[in-house]
Fold each of these.
Amino acid sequence: MSDSGRFNLFPYLWLGGVATFSIVNLVWGFYEYRRGIARWGWSGARYERSQEPFYSWLAVGGRFFGFIFGCGMFWMGLDMLHW
């Protein structure tokens, strides 16, 4: 509830979007780590760990960093709920 007594939907949409972003990055990172083939972005270049390890690890590490960043955004977004 906001200060005026009206229900505010934005914090719930924001937290839901951030949670989705974080979970997708975590699952996608584990998938690419196990598979050994990473993509740069949604449909970018493919990097195989055996042929180009630096870019492969950079892409997978970016996914895990996205998860950590999303968790921080979620934590700070909880302040919008005034708990």
Amino acid sequence: MEKLFDDTLLIQKERPTQITKQQEEKMFVDLAKECIKYQYSSDDEETIAEDLKELSINDSGFEKAKDLEDNGNASYEFDGDFIDWLDGIDYKRRDILKENVKLWVKAHNPQPKLEKGTKLKIIESLSYSKDLRKDCLVYVTGINMEQAYYTISEDKDKQGGYVLAFEKVELNCEVSE
């Protein structure tokens, strides 16, 4: 069947770095349903979803539980399983973003300009990590085509390393001899 238009035009040009508002709304509703399913709360989905939206993604499950206890509008069963569940809810956001990146890669087909084993000099810091600061030497230790990222490390024989987008490494590093 012939397509009426090129649907890759609907995919943003730049690599997605956040989930969409619609995805976030659905994620919180899904999390609220899970919360009810696992009997961590018997309140309604909307109230639970609103409570979960207010939690800091950087907090631990324990800190999130404390915040819900102090500020939540729903009532919750605060046990170890619930705290573990709260600890893991941020992975939902990461999984959605990972799928967005895969879709972006499929639409735009970015190709790596570097090969595994390439020695690089960092010309602009890639991170706050001491290993990824300006003038450090690193190696490409892996390439992930599905999500368009390199793994880089100071150890050229390492399997893995820091995970960075093709474009970030290519813009901020130069090939070193």
